Amino acid sequence: MSNYNSWGIHMRSGHCWHSSFPVKKKNKRSSKIPMNEKNLDLLNRIFKSGSEKEYIKSDILNERKFRKNVQDQNKIKSSPRQKTSKLDMHKKKEESVIIIEAGAHAREWISPAVGTYIAQQLADPANSDLLKYATWVVVPLLNPDGYDYSHTDDRFWRKNRRLNKGRPECPGVDLNRNFNIKWAITGSSSNQCSETYHGTKAFSEKETKAIRKLIKRIKNVELYLSLHSYGQVILHPLGYTSDEPPGVGELRSMADAFANHISNNGGRQYAVEQAGLNYQSGGGSDDYAFSRGVPYSYTVELPDKWKDGFETPPEKILGISQEIWTGLKCLLGDLVPDAKYLC
Ligand SMILES: [Zn+2]
């Protein structure tokens, strides 16, 4: 990424904050770059353009309401009684962490829309019970400058917008080919002009470095979801080979449970398959998270199967977001049995 920081929303048992991910250390005392005017301008444009415009119009994503909800959640957190009950509940077991990464590929607009919807639901005090059983980390837009470019210049842009040395006419790295897991082995390109250009080395990009840092820093990540489109399929590791990983049965049964939760609650039918079954690619975030010990790591190719492609009609945004959210709430009960009643 050349111009902007990735940003994340991190919610843990009642508190939430927007943050810029740590980037290149210029000053040893502070590894974070604050949200500056340039970034804020980009975010404002993102939330007022393209598919998100429909959110604002229909009051699904109401910024004022979102801010108020976050404040309310913070009040809950600061209540001593709440703290005690949380401690009692989890004194035997470390809290599970769920990471949701959205918007790695610029043109897949439904992905950040769903990520944003999930963040909004988590900030709603009506859903505060969900924060009792897991720490949720939402990265609603991993590739902001690519996403912006897909609104302003090229609807089907996929990569980020970094300038590639020696080829100014061919910018961009495919973020989902840049992770250090079988990097550049298969399903990516060393040609900077290619849509699947994997970068000069693994983790050459700020965005992928930020995810690496997140996964390394946070212990006990139980579930990692990478939201993409399209295909209406839940893909499990391994993606770089068609060989099955150890523990494939568990990976598959959790993915089947997710798909069933979605369809049993009135949502679409999502297929489940191994990512590398028909097409192999190295350097993906799902395989990376899995290689770092995350037991349940998936890429969700959001709807539809083929007709809409990347151009999800705005009227379908809410339905897709709701079905993923419902499936996720139920899936929490499979990860943390005490949370089954939330389904
Ligand atoms: Zn994608």
From TrEMBL:
Residue ranges of domain Peptidase M14 in the record: 31-335
Active site positions: 301
Cellular component GO terms held in the UniProt record: extracellular space
Region entry Disordered, spans: 71-90
Signal peptide: none
InterPro entries: Peptidase_M14
GO biological process, one term: proteolysis
Alphabetic keyword roster: Carboxypeptidase, Hydrolase, Metal-binding, Metalloprotease, Protease, Signal, Zinc
GO molecular function: metallocarboxypeptidase activity; zinc ion binding
Cofactor(s) demanded: Zn(2+)
Record's keyword annotation contains Zinc: yes
Family as reported in the entry's similarity comment: Belongs to the peptidase M14 family.
Name of the protein in its database record: Peptidase M14 domain-containing protein
Species the sequence originates in: Meganyctiphanes norvegica (Northern krill)
